[in-house]
Amino acid sequence: MFAQRLARARKAAGLSMNALASKVGVSDNAIKKYEHGESMPTSANLLMLAKALDVRTEYFFRPIKVELKGVEYRKRANTPQKILDQINGDVMDQAERWAELIDLYPDSVKPIPEFTLPDSLPHHVEGAAGIEAVADQMRSEWQIGFNPIPDMIDILESKGVMIICTDVKANKKFDGLAGKIENTPVVVVSTYQPGDRQRFTLAHELGHLVLSGRLPEGTDEEKACNHFAGAFLLPKQAVLQHIGAHRRALEPRELYMLKHEFGISMMAILMRLTQCGAISESLQKQNFMRFNKQGWRTSEPGEPYPQEDTYLFKQLVYRALGESYIGESKAAELMGISLSQFHKERKLEVSNAVAHQ
């Protein structure tokens, strides 16, 4: 247990064995032996390890009860393994705290619903028309209608999907990942991505949950999920209402306003306009060339779409505290902050200080 946790914490901190050894004041070989389970650190070195890795000492001895299975990354091919290790460590730490929090609730209370797909979904989804139809059906089943979705994270969490936001800096090389903890779908998004990219990642991963096992053999599921994501965020009915059925030219400002109304990138909107038949492929190509010339494919113009965040974990910590399922010390531990900091947050002193800055 200790060896596995030490290795995970070191990788999550982005440190090599040599770097950690230097921080703790021991040899590289000592760290290697710790991680291979060949020896244990002294009490003094254990405290130094915890400080160097920014974890509590009890972290090293907590039983590993969570396994994230079926992990799929949305990343660039050249994303360094070091960054993926850091992300994996952060995700597993948050997932373990999630699992521990849920276990602290009594069996009679279910703080989050079990994720299920509507029984009415078709068994087979074929072609672009089938993907459009199933995206519309999901909106209908979830009673979203065809209006903009104000908060993708809230929608998915309310349906039983665990959302984890990671603060690991990935230099735009990582959008997110998906997996499962037992029967609970888990989707991870980066806090360093603009809101429209976060939302597309969330909708894309929902696409995998919806389309898995329903597509014809040989279908490129990644492309199908991209199509689903666009259709879920910006339905065809909304495209035709805002843009019109047949356009011969487009103003960039139209795309910009639609982006901020529906929370989907201008590039993705261009794809949607073609998919919905509102513009021709030649007009799409003209606009892609314009985007290339202006540098908008790398960084779209104007204000970025606001980022999304998850508040459910903290809300459930305070709910557990309010219901006396846990005490302040456990609440602070679950939230990864000191007890004194938790006291300030609980009394809204932190919020008040920010509000007066």
What does this molecule look like?
It is a single chain. The chain is globular. Helix 8 (about 195-210) crosses helix 9 (about 220-235) and helix 15 crosses helix 16. It has helices at about 1-10, 15-25, 30-35, 45-55, 80-105, 125-140, 150-160, 195-210, 220-235, 235-245, 250-260, 265-275, 280-295, 310-320, 330-335, 340-345, 350-355; strands spanning about 70-75, 160-165, 175-180, 185-190. The longest helix has 24 residues, at about 80-105. It is α+β, with helices and mostly antiparallel strands and about 350 residues long. The protein folds into 2 domains: about 1-65, lambda repressor-like DNA-binding domains (434 Repressor (Amino-terminal Domain), Orthogonal Bundle), CATH 1.10.260; about 65-325, Orthogonal Bundle (Arc Repressor Mutant, subunit A), CATH 1.10.10.2910. The chain is built from 17 helices and 4 strands.
Short description:
By secondary structure, the protein is of the alpha+beta class.
Please identify the structural class as seen in this structure.
alpha+beta
CATH architecture of the largest domain: Orthogonal Bundle
* Gross morphology: globular
Order of helices and strands: HHHHEHHHEEEHHHHHHHHHH
Instruction: Please give the share of residues in helix.
Output: 40-55%
Tally of separate domains: 2
What's the alpha carbon Rg, rounded to whole Å?
A: 23 Å
Number of helices: 17
What is the percentage of strand-forming residues? 5-15%
Question: Which fold name corresponds to the CATH topology of the largest domain?
Answer: Arc Repressor Mutant, subunit A
Termini gap: 44 Å
Sequence stretches where pLDDT stays below 50 over 5 or more residues: 353-357
The main sheet comes to:
4 strands, mixed
